[in-house]
Design brief:
The chain is of the alpha/beta class. It contains 8 helices and 14 strands. Strand 1, helix 1 and strand 2 form a beta-alpha-beta unit. The C terminus is likely disordered. It is found in: Cytoplasm.
């Protein structure tokens, strides 16, 4: 039985979510502010965290960063703010999905099940993946080039790992998006993916304008390029 932490300052919304999740067979725990959530996370493990962006003593982005530092527990953001900058920021620091209030409970539950299913179906990862001179240490979620660490955002790392795990295989934009996140909405689209591909190339390619590690296959998508090895 999956256990979910609900971090929501609106007690009415939190109560409604908690009731609905229990009806679906989930175990739940509720925190109404950032400090309470941090204390709970120190003593309990969860299969997923529902996280409000706006909290009375901080914000969900900071709490999401803390969760990401501690492990890979899935995070779904709940917020009334649906501007592109907030969507991208949430995804960038490691959120798995983003639901804008007001939302339908059935939709939220569907998103939760989708994220949990994706984590449960993930195959065991190789300890190390090499892409040319780039080394991906999957155990620590760190990336190196010529022994120098490359700092990637959570979403850049997911993108690189997705391409590297399918090296030599052409992935369509849709396939890549499905591997990286479960978000639906106007802000998660081809343009967003193009931006991330560009940012990733700038960090790992010798010449981002003539990429060798992340190749564009015109009309089809992208593929990881030369020098692929796994340990």
């Amino acid at each position: 039985m999956s256990k979910i932490l609900i971090v929501e300052d609106d007690k009415t919304i939190a109560l409604g979510i908690e009731y609905s999740l229990k009806q679906e067979g989930f175990q739940t725990e509720v925190a109404h502010d950032k400090s309470s959530a941090e204390k709970i996370l120190q003593t309990s493990e969860f299969n997923l965290v529902l996280l409000d962006v706006s909290l009375p003593d901080g914000n969900g982005f900071d709490l999401c960063r803390t969760i990401r530092e501690q492990g890979d527990t899935p995070v779904i953001f709940l917020t009334v703010r649906d501007e592109e900058v907030n969507v991208v920021m949430g995804l960038d620091i490691g959120a798995d999905d983003y639901v804008t209030k007001p939302f339908r409970v059935r939709e939220l539950i569907s998103r939760i099940k989708s994220v949990l299913r994706r984590y449960e179906q993930q195959p065991p990862q190789k300890t190390e993946i090499r892409l040319g001179e780039v080394l991906i240490d999957t155990a620590q979620a760190r990336v190196f080039k010529q022994r120098k660490e490359i700092i990637l955002t959570a979403l850049e790392y997911r993108l690189l790992l997705t391409l590297a795990n399918h090296a030599g295989q052409v992935l369509s934009r849709k396939q890549i998006l499905e591997h990286i996140w479960d978000v639906a909405g106007d802000f998660v689209n081809d343009n967003t993916l193009t931006v991330y591909i560009k940012r990733l190339r700038e960090k790992i390619e010798d010449d981002p304008h003539r990429p060798k590690l992340i190749q564009t296959v015109r009309g089809l998508g992208y593929k990881a390029g030369v020098g692929f090895e796994t340990d």
